[in-house]
Structures are given as C-alpha cells and as structure tokens.
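Re: Re: ligand-bound prediction request (bumping)

Still looking for help on this. To restate: I need the protein modeled with PBG bound, output as structure tokens. Inputs repeated here so nobody has to scroll up.
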Amino acid sequence: MTSVSSPPRTIRIGSRKSQLALVQTYWVREQLQKSFPEINFEVHTMSTQGDKILDVALAKIGDKGLFTKELEVGMLNQEIDFAVHSLKDLPTNLPEGLTLAAITERENPADALVLHEKHKGLTIENLPAGAVIGTSSLRRLAQLRHKFPHFTFKDIRGNLNTRMAKLDAGEYDALILAVAGLERLGMGDRVHQILPKEVSLHAVGQGALGIECRADDQELISLLKAIEHPETRDRCLAERAFLRDLEGGCQVPIGVNTEIENGNLTLSGIVASVDGQKLVQDTVSGPAANAEALGTELANRLRQQGAQEILNAIFAEIQRGS
Ligand SMILES: NCc1[nH]cc(CCC(=O)O)c1CC(=O)O
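Reply:
Sorry for the wait, this slipped through. Here it is.
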C-alpha cells in the first residue's frame, strides 16, 4: 500500500528514440522534476513499428498506433510507468487499462510552409505553377490540392533532418511541416509562412503532447496533473471526440481548428477526399466544459454533409493496398 509517508518512487518514462520524441520527453521530465524534486524520473527509449518502417508509405498502411503500440505494451507490462507522445500520433481509442492522464500546453498547432532558398520571400499563394510540394500527410495533400491544383505534390519520408536535406538538395520547391516540430527542434527560422486556417486546418492534437499511463495508477495520474494545460486539454478533447466519432486515424484527411474565448470553445473541422475534389466543413461552438459533446456535434453535422462517404472511399482504397 502506498501512503503519504512512503519513500518517493522512481518513475520510468517511455519515449520513442527520434530526436523530436526525446526533446519532448526530456521537456516533460524537466517540468515534472521542477514540481517533484524528490522523485527520480528515468527515461527509457523504445523503437516503435513506425520508426522501423519510415521508408514505406506510412499513409497507406492505415494502421493506427504505429508510433505508440510498443510503448503501450511497455506500460501494461510494467516496464515503464508513462509515455510521452505527440498527441496527434496517439489513437483516439486507447487500449484497455491505459488512460490519457494529461495534455500539456500546445505549441502553435498550425502547418508551416518551408521553402527552398530560391523561393525566399514567396508564400503559398504566389509560388509558381508546377512547384513541387513535399508532404506525407493526406490531410495536407487534400486541402492544398483543393486550393492550389496547379502545384505538383510529391510524397516525402524520413525524419526532419532528412526531409530538410531533400528540400535543400532541390528535390522539392517547398515542404509542408508542423510548426511545432520545427520549433521544438530549433528549426523555427525555417518557417517561411504559417499557413492560415483558410488554407490548412491542422491535425487533431497537433502541437500538443499527450501523456499516457496505466488507468489504475492514481498516484501517478495526480502527479501528471501538475503539467496539464486545461485550455489545451479542452481544445484537444473536442478535436479528439470529433476524430473518434468519424472513426478516423491520424492518416486520413481530417483537419481541425479550435479557439477558446471567455470559456467558449469554437471547433471547426474539415473532411476531404485525397484528390481534393470533395470537401465538407463546418464550425460549432459552445461552453468549453462540453468539449467532447462539441466534437460529437461537429462529427454528426459533417456526416450529414457526406463525410462518411468520403472516408469510406478512402478506407476502401487503403484496404485494396493501393
Ligand atoms: N506526423 C509526424 C509528426 N508527429 C508529430 C509531429 C510534430 C508536430 C506535433 O507535435 O504535432 C510530426 C511532424 C509533422 O507533422 O510535421
């Protein structure tokens, strides 16, 4: 039995090995260490399936939890106590026995335009026709194709450094990447334009960190509340409820935007076909305390506008392995 007077425990944090994952995990550790100097926080790294198959087209695998599964198994086996995830990589339905204990303050959740230096000074609106735009995300692809059909879109894989090297080598004219990832890796100066929500709605949970642990570890769950950011949590819970109700993973063309003002949450969402031809979007708003109900309401509205047919066509294509 644990009691208030028991000696402080060692808490094992699980992380992927990627540079971004480690930056995020050590940031979480630092925040917790400030609040709980008497506790020993250890970082344990693990490779996930997603880390091992980065060269293949992840978007076409359609599997959820590519970057989280091994960490979740580690928690259930008591090898680690909690895991730090990019929230957008964490599926909306967690395995039995695990819980999303805290969501930390989000960085700018928007997508960024990163240009080859020969295009310096341009924006997405005035890049020349035929420009080769690199993205691995169906969500970015669908929205940009819809608005900028005159660009050429090309898949890109690998970690951030690999992608930047391909851009600098001239394989692409521009890349679309998350502002948050670039900022965390000290590459914020490579952001040429933060894409406005009229151009690209970001991924669910983008820019926030999700901390997952065993659902029965009450002591740890209370500790983790120390680094929760309530406004980010409300926004992300609305976004995740929307995604869960549409049964979409992080690999489908679903985008969102959220804002909170005076306790009022506004959630916008978009569902698009990969070719950018079909697109439905809407906005709901209400008390932030009802975050998840707002996500459900938006999912219902978009379904009435044909979102399910768009998604079913994409799932069928993934199933065919095309
Ligand atoms: N899909 C990969 C991924 N997962 C998390 C981030 C970093 C941004 C974030 O924390 O949301 C990225 C890179 C990107 O989308 O450019």
